[in-house]
Request: fold
Amino acid sequence: MKLTQLSPNIGAEITGIDLREPVDGETRRFLNAAVVDNVALVIRDQDFTPEQYLAAVSLFGEPMDQHFTQYALPQCPLVHEVSNRHKDKSGKRVKHGAGWHTDHTNHVRPPKNTSLYAVALPSSGGDTAVVNMRAGYDALPDDIKQKIQDMKTVNVFQGSASAQYSGQSADAQQERKPEPVLQPLVRTNPDNGKKALYFHPVKTENIVGMSAEASQALLDDLLDRSIKDEFVYRHKWRKGDMLIWDNRAAMHRAYFDYDPEEFRLLYRVLVRGEVPV
Ligand SMILES: [Fe+2]
Reply:
């Protein structure tokens, strides 16, 4: 097994391991530390059934249920399809995750990791990008760090900004409306004690004590300041790639820059996290 760093700030690649085979404790710890240290980890050349993929992701923690249950594989429901062939009730293709975000912030214990596995890919494009929000936080001026230090976001299934969100689907708007969940805008990763910006621009209804408009303006400003090219790892998919990242220190987005007639299918598994602090 070999680890290669892909850029100074984010991303590493693992080659020479077949995660269908049993993994010993030392290797498991190495892989987990590689995700925390590098924020995003690519494990190349895997050949999984959905069940084998789920077992591989379980090396990083306990898989959890996901929103949009219509995308769950019937035979292995903790694995969801991310496909460009999904349509909403009006027959329009859905485009989830086209903007920077982190997953399931409206859960009290949102996922520690998100993992994707490439099953079918377009001939070009359709990348997934992950950005290091620990670096993004570190790059903020001190007065802003001070100002946002104790702020909490109010997270709902669909927040105030949903209407402006290009990834919005008609189906999503009809989903249930569970209780809002508060999350720290700056969270500390329990695995390394490092702080990172943590928010979902669309699931945030507002910041506690601020109007929805002022909250969105602040989040937009934080995105502008923290998402710098040198903090981004843009993953160009190869078949057999397993990508996993640390949601406690990352945001991610999908690119819909390929021919929609070509088929793109990934499997997705989420790993349960702790209550963010
Ligand atoms: Fe996502």
Summary: Residues 163-175 have pLDDT under 50 and may be disordered. The pocket of fe (ii) ion is lined by residues 97, 101, 103, 252 (CB under 6 Å). The domain at 2-272 is CATH 3.60.130.10 (Double-stranded beta-helix).
